[in-house]
Specification:
232 residues; alpha+beta; three-stranded mixed sheet; 22% helix; binds iron/sulfur cluster
Length: 232
């Protein structure tokens, strides 16, 4: 049977540290203001009896993905393995996918990301001499912590201005037998990634052991990101 990838997030384990968000940013070279992995924090109660709920969020790689349905150029598309991915070369930046996505996890690049590292020759620190351009030239990288491996599979390492972008479930890593960067970075092992069609996989056994929920089930998108062990 073909593989079908998904993710489980254990809310009893998640401590809301944001390591997943940071790992995603450095793995995928996402610019300021763009968070393929993020989380929402809800506060309950009145001081001093207060509790918090952290819910990590990312693209749900929906089985019935409205973003794929509405894309006029097939830039947003679904692979046989269940990844909802995006081809920046086909994207005309119409934002139809953003409007159709009920989860708000697609981002539009309105600027040429990190371009200032190539062009800005003014001092980084007031009164100093070192510039972003010099840093970029000396490190021989477009910007600090640039991950060239992100572009190794042909997907742009930094997506162009005028295109949208979103979580790819780190399909470039999965193709090499690695887990997504957010899964590896989680210090609490709150994320489980794997093949939903393999009944012996950790994700499949976890989903059998716990009653999972998904975000916005009423939208009928059939998400492939599941949440278990909700405190609330
Ligand atoms: S979460 Fe949004 S972007 Fe991701 S597949 Fe579903 S509709 Fe598309
Ligand atoms: S913005 Fe790009 S990916 Fe989204 S619907 Fe338009 S062409 Fe498709």
């Amino acid at each position: 049977m073909a593989k079908k990838y998904g993710m489980v997030i254990d809310l009893h384990r998640c401590v809301g540290c944001g390591a997943c968000d940071l790992a995603c940013k450095s793995e995928n070279n996402t610019p300021d203001g763009i968070h393929w992995a993020f989380h929402k924090t809800e506060t309950y109660g009145i001081f001093p009896h207060v509790s918090y709920k952290h819910t990590p969020t990312l693209c749900n790689h929906c089985e019935d993905a409205p973003c794929v349905r509405v894309c006029p150029t097939h830039a947003m598309h679904k692979t046989d393995e269940g990844f909802v991915v995006h081809d920046p070369n086909l994207c005309i930046g119409c934002k139809s996918c953003m409007l159709a996505d009920p989860y708000g996890v697609i981002f539009y690049n309105k600027e040429h990301a990190f371009l200032d590292y190539a062009t800005d020759d003014s001092s980084i620190v007031k009164g100093g001499t070192f510039s972003k351009k010099e840093l970029s030239d000396k490190s021989k990288a477009p910007f600090p912590n640039f991950n060239a491996a992100r572009g190794a599979d042909g997907y742009e390492a930094v997506r162009r201005k005028g295109a949208v972008e979103k979580c790819t479930f780190c399909n470039h890593r999965v193709a090499q037998g690695l887990a997504p960067a957010c899964v590896v970075a989680c210090p609490a092992d709150a994320r489980i990634f794997g093949d939903l069609n393999d009944e012996k996989s950790k994700i499949a056994t976890t989903l059998r052991a716990h009653k999972p929920t998904v975000l916005l089930p009423e939208k009928g998108t059939n998400p492939k990101v599941f949440y278990i062990r909700n405190y609330n």
